[in-house]
Amino acid sequence: MFLSAVSLFVGVIDIQVTSLLAGNLEQWEIFIISRLPRLLAILCTGIGMSTAGLIMQQLCMNKFVSPTTGATISSAQFGILLALLFWPGSTLWGRAIFAFTTAVLGTWIFVWFIQRIQFKDVVMVPLVGIMFGNVIGGITNYLAYKYEMTQALSSWLVGHFSLVLKGRYEIVYLVVPLVILAFLFANHFNIVGMGKEFSKNLGIHYNLILFMGLTIAAMITASVVVVVGSISYIGLIVPNIIAMFKGDKIRGTLVDTALFGAIFVLVCDMIGRVVIMPYELPIELIVGIVGSVLFIALLLYRLKNGRKVIRLKGAGTTGCGSVASSLDGGEKK
């Protein structure tokens, strides 16, 4: 609450509490049109991206899978480009439909592919996702250059909150019902993460729950990308940090993950606003610097303490990814 209140009064234009209480119309206009929507978008972004990462990690049983390393963000950007190419006059909702569709399809294809890899380790699965995401990103950039859409697409390639205004960010509210839905099915996601046979023994429809969870994560990611742009590492770093203290059970960690994700994004956004005032750094830059350092640290930690290689006896027997990282603090459960 304290950080949220401080965020409302941080910016190029000073807003004074006394002026608001005195009924200053100009300051109230800035507050309602810019500052409050920005805060709500920040909170929804942090909650949504961290929850999406938690869902993907649980379903794939790999702590390095996230919207960033699972090609979800790249797929959403590809959908936005398709909307700009084939529906130039589309509204934000029109672009969101394209982004939802491609993000879901891209995530499904990634999971379908890694299910068919016989040998997996804790690092290989996200590396496959990064390569797949780079392929999609390469196609996106090629089409953008070919049809001279690079400048139009640039707003979604780097995440920032500077353009979040009243009437242009409300799509991000979709995060709230999607996160609630994820919480309701949290136990199902846990069971599916144990493997196909285990799910069937407990009467859980494995494929249905798997694709539902991946769809929720993809739609959350797409709704954020359409409004804010690409923000990496949130869905990767935040769930891992929470899991170190709270364990891997999704129902027990989802609230903490969402809360910490919101705080993490809020702090990074405030740093970006004040470090070179009156100018503003994109939040993608701040999160990227912090996230890359933490990602390398987590990578080295898992390589040192995690089980190195798991050979699967059959396709799909351990969720959609590798069980190599179903560890908490590097110890076998």
**Order of neighbouring strands in the sheet with most strands:** 1-2
Q: Could you estimate the helical fraction of the residues in percent?
A: 55-70%
Count of alpha and pi helical runs: 14
Write down the CATH class.
Answer: Mainly Alpha
CATH topology: ABC transporter involved in vitamin B12 uptake, BtuC
Spell the H/E element sequence.
HHHHHEHHHHHHHHHEEEE
**Main sheet, how many strands, which sense, barrel?**
2 strands, antiparallel
Shape: globular
Number of E strands: 5
Q: Please name the CATH architecture.
A: Orthogonal Bundle
Pick out the low-confidence regions: 307-319, 321-333
Report the span from N to C terminus.
36 Å
Rg (CA only): 20 Å
- Structural class from helices and strands? mainly alpha
Number of domains: 1
